[in-house]
Amino acid sequence: MNEAATRSVIVEREIPFPPEKIWRALTQPHLIEEWLMKNNFKPVVDHRFSLNAEWGGVDCQVRMVEPNRTLSYSWDTKDLESVVTWTLTPRGTGTHLRMEQVGFRTDQEPYYRGATVGWKRNFTALEQLLSRID
């Protein structure tokens, strides 16, 4: 992947929950399904997993796991090869949550636009889930 010729989608939010709670929602398959997609995720480096929705699926592989701090995985679908990285930074009584998806080529405008809208929607669903779980 030529990083110089790619764009990123970045979403950042201050979330009023500790990193440990957010980490659970990012790494437990039954919780991931509630805010993102059906999956067979395991927070283990090199684990290959799939995300599945009515529109199709995404093939992924875990690249980095630093519990309660950083999670990164490849996100490959059709001709899009990208990487999603979550960063959790404790702030006061909450967490600064940052998600960056890197790898949108300049000729992949529909994917880029879809991810820009989709990740904001996913963040909202994630925050709603966090409000419901212990």
From TrEMBL:
Superkingdom, natural source: Bacteria
Activator of Hsp90 ATPase homologue 1/2-like C-terminal domain sequence ranges: 17-130
Membrane-spanning residues: none
InterPro entries from the UniProt entry: ASHA1/2-like_C, START-like_dom_sf
A Pfam family hit: AHSA1
Membership in a protein family: Belongs to the AHA1 family.
Protein name, UniProt field: SRPBCC domain-containing protein
